[in-house]
């Protein structure tokens, strides 16, 4: 459903004034802000854990958050996303950390997520992995996996990932966000500013906050500290159950953060798994609540309902004959108390299905059948595809498979870069932003000295050693960093293809 232009404009202005930004950290290399298109999931069933609540010992707060953290910490993961392209959607820009970011540079970003299924499914934010050519997941025990984007829903900023884990994974238990109350204690776990597995505690400040899309937004507002890098992490109740996904903060205040209700995520999870995208029912009206003042001025009989403010042309509502000032009081024999009630009900219905609206018009109750169509994606979001996403090749094919380019050292280069004349190796001139070397924190300007303990004295040596590497192999790189004047060993895990 869409809102009127005035309401959308007002909401956008409020969001701008709040200065909302995503709680994902961004690389300091060039720019940041990434997201990935959804890919088709496999046919394995997704069995999320809706686990029992924790039994808490008596404390001053009535809850021991050390028990909560111990239960959930292992299921929280760090997510790194990198893109070779500079393209950025409006949806991604609204979560941008720094308005001064370079819009033309390759993008890198990091945030959080949590495991919801032992077969490797992970929930995180859609804006975090938009357009990414590589999504890497690091578990709390240090294991690193290349993740596949199974599905994404830009409308509520949720993405479903999967990692190819063969060992047992810790899983987060999911709760019921519909049962939350304002003032209830919650905690957040994530990787703010790179400080992995940080735990913060606060209360639920507000429920149902609308920030970007008034027809779908129902954010949980909390004063639990959320910072860049928390995006995609869990918001947890005192019973050790995930009740939300942290997604945004206000840049104007240090204690205003927002999370997507987990109940809203669970309602679309089957579609994300099976189809890679979400379809929602749509009728094409602008709605508002029937306030006491409006009911009095318009002489409505019913005390509850969703008031039609406008009807879009060539939509199901238009074809069904809905009019401005119609008060929708029920749908499919279910009472409608507010516009949110109607939006949630219709959005949960399949496009193509038929519903029957009960309306109050000119003092008379009427029943109108209406065939739903698919809700359009917001203009701020990309249209997600259903086909598996393939990683784009390196910009320079000579970078494969390590994802870096090198050149021979000479006296002129050594003087210019202040490299000791006695050092033998090759200068790293370029690193693929979505390649394995970048993930290992190797940077241009370093001097590559050895590959798998074998000396590299020239580009010819480098190419010969690289030619002998195998897919999925872990490669030890010994390199000199002229900025720190130190040598270090790096582990690069090659791609499987």
Topology, element by element:
Layout: H1 5-18, E1 20-22, E2 25-26, H2 65-72, E3 76-83, H3 90-94, E4 107-115, E5 121-124, E6 134-138, E7 144-146, E8 148-153, E9 158-162, E10 185-190, E11 198-209, E12 219-222, E13 234-237, E14 242-250, E15 257-261, H4 262-275, E16 281-282, E17 285-289, H5 292-298, E18 306-311, H6 316-320, E19 327-331, E20 334-335, H7 339-348, E21 354-361, E22 364-371, E23 373-374, E24 404-408, H8 411-417, E25 426-431, H9 436-439, E26 447-451, E27 454-455, H10 459-467, E28 474-481, E29 486-493
Antiparallel strand pairs: 1-14, 2-4, 3-4, 3-6, 4-5, 5-9, 6-7, 8-9, 10-11, 10-13, 11-12, 12-15, 13-14, 14-15, 16-23, 17-18, 18-19, 19-20, 19-21, 21-22, 24-25, 25-26, 26-27, 26-28, 28-29
State the gist of this model.
The protein is α+β, with helices and mostly antiparallel strands. The chain has helices spanning 5-18, 65-72, 90-94, 262-275, 292-298, 316-320, 339-348, 411-417, 436-439, 459-467, and strands at residues 20-22, 25-26, 76-83, 107-115, 121-124, 134-138, 144-146, 148-153, 158-162, 185-190, 198-209, 219-222, 234-237, 242-250, 257-261, 281-282, 285-289, 306-311, 327-331, 334-335, 354-361, 364-371, 373-374, 404-408, 426-431, 447-451, 454-455, 474-481, 486-493.
């Amino acid at each position: 459903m869409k809102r009127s232009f005035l309401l959308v404009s007002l909401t956008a202005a409020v969001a701008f004034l709040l200065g909302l930004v995503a709680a994902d950290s961004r690389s300091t290399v060039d720019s940041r802000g990434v997201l990935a298109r959804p890919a088709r999931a496999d046919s394995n069933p997704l069995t999320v854990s809706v686990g029992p609540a924790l039994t808490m010992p008596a404390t001053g707060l009535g809850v021991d958050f050390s028990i909560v953290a111990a239960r959930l910490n292992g299921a929280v993961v760090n997510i790194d996303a990198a893109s070779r392209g500079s393209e950025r959607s409006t949806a991604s820009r609204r979560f941008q950390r720094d308005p001064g970011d370079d819009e033309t540079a390759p993008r890198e970003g990091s945030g959080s997520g949590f495991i919801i299924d032992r077969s490797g499914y992970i929930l995180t934010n859609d804006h975090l992995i938009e357009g990414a050519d590589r999504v890497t997941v690091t578990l709390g025990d240090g294991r690193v996996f290349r993740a596949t984007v199974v599905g994404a829903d830009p409308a509520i900023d949720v993405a479903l990932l999967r990692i190819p884990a063969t060992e047992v994974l810790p899983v987060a238990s999911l709760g019921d966000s519909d049962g939350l109350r304002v003032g209830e204690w919650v905690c957040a776990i994530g990787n703010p500013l790179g400080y992995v597995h940080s735990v913060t505690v606060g209360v639920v400040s507000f429920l149902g906050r609308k920030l970007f899309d008034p027809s779908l937004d129902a954010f949980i507002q909390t004063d639990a500290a959320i910072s860049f890098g928390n995006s995609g992490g869990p918001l947890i109740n005192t019973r050790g159950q995930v009740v939300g996904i942290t997604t945004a903060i206000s840049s104007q205040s240090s204690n205003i953060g927002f999370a997507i209700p987990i109940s809203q995520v669970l309602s679309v999870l089957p579609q994300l798994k099976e189809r890679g995208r979400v379809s929602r029912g749509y009728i094409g009206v602008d709605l508002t609540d029937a306030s006491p003042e409006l009911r009095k001025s318009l002489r409505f009989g019913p005390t509850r309902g969703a008031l039609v403010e406008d009807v879009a042309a060539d939509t199901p509502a238009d074809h069904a004959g809905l009019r401005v000032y119609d008060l929708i009081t029920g749908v499919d024999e279910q009472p409608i108390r507010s516009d949110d009630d109607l939006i949630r009900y219709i959005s949960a219905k399949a496009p193509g299905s038929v519903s029957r609206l009960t309306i109050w018009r000119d003092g008379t109750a009427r029943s109108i059948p209406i065939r739903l169509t698919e809700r359009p994606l917001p203009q701020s979001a990309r249209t997600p595809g259903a086909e598996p996403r393939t990683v784009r090749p390196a910009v320079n094919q000579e970078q494969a498979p390590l994802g870096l380019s090198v050149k021979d050292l000479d006296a002129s280069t050594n003087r210019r870069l202040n490299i000791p004349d006695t050092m033998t190796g090759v200068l790293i001139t370029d690193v693929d932003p979505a390649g394995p070397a970048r993930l290992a924190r190797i940077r241009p300007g370093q001097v590559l000295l050895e590959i798998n303990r074998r000396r590299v004295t020239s580009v010819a040596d480098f190419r010969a050693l690289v030619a002998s590497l195998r897919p999925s192999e872990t490669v030890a790189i010994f390199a000199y960093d002229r900025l720190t004047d130190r040598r270090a060993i790096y582990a690069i895990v090659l791609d499987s293809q």
